[in-house]
Design a protein that fits this description.
Elements lengths: L1 H18 L15 H16 L3 E8 L2 E11 L2 E10 L4 E9 L2 E8 L8 E8 L2 E11 L2
Antiparallel strand pairs: 1-2, 2-3, 3-4, 5-6, 6-7
Helix pairs in contact: 1-2
């Protein structure tokens, strides 16, 4: 309940900030910064990231990143999703599922040397930190 209230409050603040901008009728100039837009985007991004149990952005190259998100349920049983964000600016869920444990880490590696990176998720048992398993998704 508190998380939903915080997100609702954050959204209302962002809307108020958007409505109060004085530069609305000015033509943007190359090289100028709209500090209000940057601040709103940063606040929204931080709110988005903090609303999940685990969030990590993995950069494949300058035009392609993957977001690994852990959410839902308790630490011992929740869900995960891997979201693709490319230069086309379209978000795509490439993999999701249930997990038994917490996401301890996520990283990129090319373990099979095929010049295509894989995304690895390390799932850890919350009651026994030595019990870990990994999930793998090959970047296409």
């Amino acid at each position: 309940m508190t998380m939903k209230y915080n997100l609702l409050l954050l959204s209302a603040i962002c809307c108020l900030l958007c409505a109060c901008t004085q530069n609305q009728n000015q033509i943007p100039v190359v090289g100028s910064l709209d500090s209000t837009a940057i601040a709103i985007d940063t606040v929204m991004q931080k709110g988005f990231e903090s609303s999940y149990e685990f969030h990590k952005t993995l950069t494949v190259h300058e035009k392609l990143v993957y977001d690994v998100v852990g959410y839902g349920g308790s630490a011992s049983a929740g869900e995960y999703a891997i979201l693709r964000r490319g230069a086309d600016n379209k978000t795509d869920t490439v993999m999701k599922g249930k997990r038994d444990g917490i996401i301890a880490d996520a990283f990129l590696a090319d373990s099979n040397n095929n010049r295509r990176e894989e995304i690895y998720l390390v799932i850890q048992n919350p009651s026994n930190s030595s019990q870990k398993k990994s999930l793998k998704y090959e970047v296409k």
